[in-house]
Amino acid sequence: MIGQLLRRDLAMLLPGGKAGGRQGGTMLPLLFFLAVAMLYPFAVGPDAQLLARTGGGVIWVAALLAAILPLDRLVAPDLEQGVFDQLALRGISEEIALSVRMLAHWLSFAPLLLLATVPAAALLSLDGLALRTVLLGLLAGTPGLAAIGVMIAALTASLRGGAALSGLMLIPLAVPILIFGAGSLSRADDSGILLAGAISLVLAAITPFAGGAAIRAAREG
Amino acid sequence: MQACHLVANQIACRRGERLLFRAIDLDLAAGSACHITGPNGIGKTSLIRILGGLLRPFSGTLERTGNAGLLDEKPALDPQLPLGKALDFWAGLDGVDSAAKGTSITRVGMADLLDVPVRFLSTGQKKRAALARLLGQNAAVWLLDEPLNGLDREGVALCESLVAAHCAAGGIAVVASHQPIALPDHVTLNLPEFAA
Fold it and tell me: ipTM surpassing 0.90, yes or no?
């Protein structure tokens, strides 16, 4: 059952997938991420030292924003189409459906983003050590970003103008991951990465329940 | 068909500040059908969703044995996918083998349209596709919310015959419809009589 849900969610979210409310997943998050890394040196100038000092943070912000690009596709189409109703009638709770969706969302953007971090780091003249820190940090932090995305998508799915609200809700939720994830770049040890990972786990644990409650509330409304 | 029974005791439904209906009693044994009638906005859909457990009643209790299948205005089929693939997802969840899947699609007369993306289907064709999904689910309790909407005359006859066959096989059918629909041996629940 989980496998069938995951297969459908991946077809919906993966780049080149064909299901879902719209055209399936797109390469947009990845292209957006690379575009930021390419444009940033033009904006601040080619000072390698400045780029290396700020580049890690830019990668983090770009990753965060790339993760929420597909937000409107994550939950709303299924709510509209009555898919959650049909799942509930088959005894599949919203919590299970959203856990699977969170995993699919992570798979649809994080691995590609981690790969793209390598060229992005080159563009921002990060050295090998900083690249390692960014990669490990993103590995720890992206599950949290995926969780935030699914949570916000579920909370705003039944609202008109949900997209505008999503941006506002994102900021307080994403700040802790950013502080520790991007903050690990200025520390000698890996404690920031571990804390970012811990926050990710907490968010991933909360999301199915918060999102499930939101979907049930939308049904009652 | 598994054993099924549907009992509602003194169900009331409130939406927002408005009490839609109250004191609804319903006792449906295997093989029986119920036609819920009433004008738009009286709460037919809400009652169907309460019976399916998707909405909590404001008061009253509900006992249901046997799994419920819902057919409403949302087909729950991925619009981008070819019909066959979209139905396959639910068939996979419901554990339907491919022979049974073919039978249910043929029964609703959609066998020729399996390669057509769901978004290109007409309202009536989507309704037929949703009927195929419902047939595959093999649910004991059918909850049909305006099943005739969008169906042509042939489709109406098809829907009526499917419900009749379902009840004959020992299932329960609850049909909310403001249109006349021929149901086998059934009770009629006229919601305005229960309006608060």
Answer: yes
